[in-house]
Amino acid sequence: MKNWIMIIAVICLIGALYMLPVAFSERRIDDHSNNSPQKMENACEIFIEVEGQKGKIPLETYIVGVVAAEMPVSFDKEALKAQAIAARTYALKTTNYGKKAIAPTVARQVYYNKEQRKANWTSNFPGNEKKIVEAITETEGQVLLYNNELITAMFHSTSNGKTESAYGYSGNDLPYLQSVTSMSDQASPKFATIKEWTLAEWNALWPVKWQANDFSRMQLFLNDSGRVERLQLGKNVWLGREVRTLLQLPSTDFKISYNKNTGKVQVATKGYGHGVGMSQYGADAMAREGKNASEILHYYYQQIEIKKIDACLK
Fold first, then answer.
1. This protein's superkingdom (predicted)?
2. Which domain holds residue 198?
3. What value does the mean pLDDT take over residues 248-258?
4. What span, in angstroms and rounded, lies between the C-alpha atoms of 1 and 204?
């Protein structure tokens, strides 16, 4: 009897030892598949479709191309980081987290692919690319939220010394897009510009014919940020934005004058861009004064939070 018991025990022990490596191996594979950060990240990665570009582009790769196109690489890295966060927010809001395509134009966000960056930077490409990539990597996934929703993160090159509010730009008030002072923009090479036309050239642009004395009776109505809300000539009225488009002006902060001696119309402007949200030259000036990306963004966008998105929840 004892012999049979011993035989059975040996058989069970051999069976257990035989099954142990199999069980351990199966559990190890399951743990790897369940806990692999790489697999989870790839499964949830957001891709952006850019009009005119082949295939969809990973979000962070796309942001490298946007920052390289939208902001001078010579800017302080904290300004580049602020631009990266704003651009990422704008892209996700505009594309609904990659569900819609986005145009690579100034009407949306300019985008340069790697070949374009190499052509633009030539021998400086390695160093410039490294600086841009670092700014994107250090802010990876960070976006701007208001009431836990992505904001419309508008930005522009140079203000007229004061940013434009959303209400002043479109008539729609947004708490996070209010007018703030940005006096350091005056150091920007794009701050002040002058354009000239002959009266004949000027009239070729307008739907009405201007006479020399019309310039003295023309009226410009300004909003709170010093930009032209509307221009009125007799019964004719144009919005400042319409005049800017018509004359291809840098901004809506403009003054019009006519010189009877030369027969030239002159338009002097301040600022470059629509003026809403973050001023890029203002951001660079703040960064050089020691402000970090978070401080820059909280200054130009009020009442916002900076958070890292969880792409798996989208």
1. Bacteria
2. 192-270
3. 98
4. 116
